[in-house]
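Backbone-to-sequence.
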């Protein structure tokens, strides 16, 4: 297997991304990038069967439009990792900023710790493509806003402020949000409905729990013994009464 190492220290994001693309075009199957410090657009639009192992703090839009690669980041990520991602996976061994998985349309994102505001906004799905976002910690307000498809799973492995957040699922008209434990009705956004997960629904998310635990070497038992809340669309047109009809 061809492997490549890149030192990103003091390197502008444009030449860094050109080096990554060059390595992929030359057949690299594993690319390790060290000393990342805020470079944006890493792996954006990247295709192919390749693993990227990143060390440091990734700038905005990590993996935007990505289709296929497997990205592992040992560090935190700035805003919008997985923006409009089509396929592949991103595993963040830390926290991430706002708008994680913005408009994501395929693949999986795993965040070991917490994320900022509007995670999963505009996630969507089509036919067999169903994006997944799994959070080990928690999320700030407006999680799953305007969601049109996909699945968000929040495991809440730390004490959090989820019961103080607002607008969860606001405007959701497709997809579903699973949150470990209970959530106050005051946290729900417009157009949502809330239910305690059935055994069948727990069975559906159990493989994702195991996948998350394996990626971050965390004991899954604490998550498997819990109850979960499922938040889903109350209808396919949450803002129908906001329009004027002739």
């Amino acid at each position: 297997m061809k492997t490549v190492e890149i030192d990103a220290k003091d390197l502008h994001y444009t030449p860094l991304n050109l080096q990554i693309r060059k390595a992929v075009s030359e057949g690299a199957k594993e690319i390790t990038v060290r000393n990342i410090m805020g470079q944006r657009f890493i792996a954006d639009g990247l295709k192919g069967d390749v693993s990227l192992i990143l060390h440091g703090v990734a700038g905005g839009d990590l993996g935007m439009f990505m289709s296929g690669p497997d990205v592992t980041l040992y560090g935190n990520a700035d805003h919008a990792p997985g923006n409009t991602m089509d396929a592949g996976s991103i595993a963040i061994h830390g926290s991430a900023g706002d708008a994680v998985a913005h408009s994501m349309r395929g693949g999986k994102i795993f965040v070991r710790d917490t994320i900022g505001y509007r995670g999963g906004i505009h996630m969507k799905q089509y036919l067999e493509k169903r994006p997944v976002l799994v959070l080990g910690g928690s999320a700030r307000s407006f999680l799953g806003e305007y969601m049109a498809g996909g699945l968000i799973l929040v495991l809440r492995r730390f004490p959090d402020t989820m019961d103080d957040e607002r607008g969860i699922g606001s405007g959701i008209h497709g997809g579903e949000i699973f949150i470990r434990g209970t959530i106050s009705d005051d946290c729900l956004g417009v157009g949502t409905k809330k239910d305690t997960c059935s055994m069948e629904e727990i069975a559906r998310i159990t493989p994702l729990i195991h996948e998350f635990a394996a990626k971050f070497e965390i004991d899954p038992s604490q998550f498997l013994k819990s109850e979960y809340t499922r938040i889903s669309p109350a209808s396919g047109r949450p803002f129908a009464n906001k329009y004027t009809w002739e």
